[in-house]
Structure formats: structure tokens, C-alpha cells
Amino acid sequence: MRLLAIWRYDVNEQDAFITGLKDRLPEDLKDSFTTEQLAALKVAFGARQWGRHPVDLRGTLKLWRWRYYFVFLAGRNKRDLSRAQQELSLTAKALGVSLFLMISLALGLLFLYLIKSALGINLFSGFSLGLWDWFNRA
Fold this sequence. Notes:
Blueprint: H1 2-7, H2 16-24, H3 35-46, E1 55-63, E2 66-74, H4 83-118, H5 131-137
């Protein structure tokens, strides 16, 4: 059913893809396509919108006898994620939140320990982690 919706793609003569396609075709073929055929060609070749990227680095390198090109593009992903990508993203988010909470907890406990030591409160007599002495020296 989704395929049928694609074939009903709206095509008009002012469409940039259609005019570009017709400009590259021989004269005898330019007007030989039906609207459905033009829509199918647009879906097959021109459905993607390449747009601008916030980071767009392109260049060539000449090494010995050969030239190599490189392309580095970066920007926000506007595509739908596959199920595997969604699961990976959820796992990464869970790990990130867990790491943030563990670091926050460790810093919070360190802060409380330093306050306790500054107030001179000893929970266990004769035992110290040595953090207060280290903090005073620093």
C-alpha cells in the first residue's frame, strides 16, 4: 500500500527535478514520458533532498600519481531510525544518564564528606579517608 502512495507523487512542469531531467534528455524523448513515469523517475532518482549541511567539507588530495577525494558532512539526522538504531540510541541514553548520576552521586558524597570534616564530625573514631587533609594542602 505504501508503494501506491509513492506513485501518486505530485509532479508538475516547474518541478526542479523534472526540468533538470528534461534538460539532459535528447529532444525526441523530452515529451515522451507520462505523468506517472515522471513521478516514478522522481521517486527513483530525486526523492532525496540533499540540502545544506552545517558542516560540509569536500576536497581532493594528490598522492603520487592518484588523486583522492574526501567528503565530510555533519548535521542533524532527519531520517527515521531503524529498530536497531532506536535500541542502540536508547541504550546510549541509558548509559549516559547512568554515568551522569554516578558521577553526580560521587561528587555529592565527596562534598558532604568535606563538609562533615570541616565541621569536625567523626563518624568512626581513629579512621579517616585523608581527603580533608589532602583538600587543606591543595
